[in-house]
Structure formats: structure tokens, C-alpha cells
Amino acid sequence: xxxxxxxxxxxxxxxxxxxxxxxxxxxxxxxxxxxxxxxxxxxxxxxxxxxxxxxxxxxxxxxxxxxxxxxxxxxxxxxxxxxxxxxxxxxxxxxxxxxxxxxxxxxxxxxxxxxxxxxxxxxxxxxxxxxxxxxxxxxxxxxxx
Length: 145
Prior knowledge:
Layout: E1 9-16, H1 20-32, H2 40-57, E2 66-74, E3 79-86, H3 104-111, E4 114-120, E5 123-131
Antiparallel strand pairs: 1-2, 2-3, 3-5, 4-5
Helix pairs in contact: 1-2, 2-3
């Protein structure tokens, strides 16, 4: 039986820093995920949390602000990488109703198999990888990281 190894595919897209773009980001990422990925809902939830944080808690949510997503799908290794890049800390913290919110990054950390944040003076990058079960075999390279 021949084994086909496909190269990872990477896609990037910028979004306006407005709440309506969060749904667009979720839909875009869902389209990128391959058949056989049993963690589609987890990946979409991670994207939702990261993009919500970009819009609500960074300068990306200011008028004219933007955020970017990068998605790398490695079907051979059964993993997907999600990177969200925002414009760094907001000048004013987002107002929340009491008892609401504040759990997004904890949820991302729980769902992701690896997670990293890099902060720069004018940007913040959050990267995470989620692995999924192989349908017929173990990952070709033994996994990521």
C-alpha cells in the first residue's frame, strides 16, 4: 500500500476589527478544515475566542482596526495551527457585565494541544495547534512540536 504524504497548507486573511467579522472568521476557518478532522468544532471555537479577544481587548477593535488569522493544516500529521495577530493592548479595557466573560483564553489553552503568546509593543500574536485522531494510522511524523 502506498502512503501519500501531502505538504501542509497555509492560508492567511485579514479582517476588520468589528464584531461582525468574528462570524466571518469562523466560517472561513471551517471551510479550510479537511474532511476527517474530528475537531472542527474545537478549532472553530478557538478561532471564535481568539478573534473575539482581538476585537474586544486589543487596539484591533478601535475604529479602523484589523486583525489577521493564519491557519496551517497538516493533514499528514493530523493537526491544524491557528494564529491570531492583533494590534496589541487596547487603550481602554472593554466593559463587561458582571460575571460575564474572562474565560476565553483559558478555554483556548484547554482545547489546544500547544499554545503560545508573543507580545510586541504594537501587536500580540497567539498561536495554538490542535491535533485530531488519524482515521486509519498514526501521524506520519509522530506529531508536532
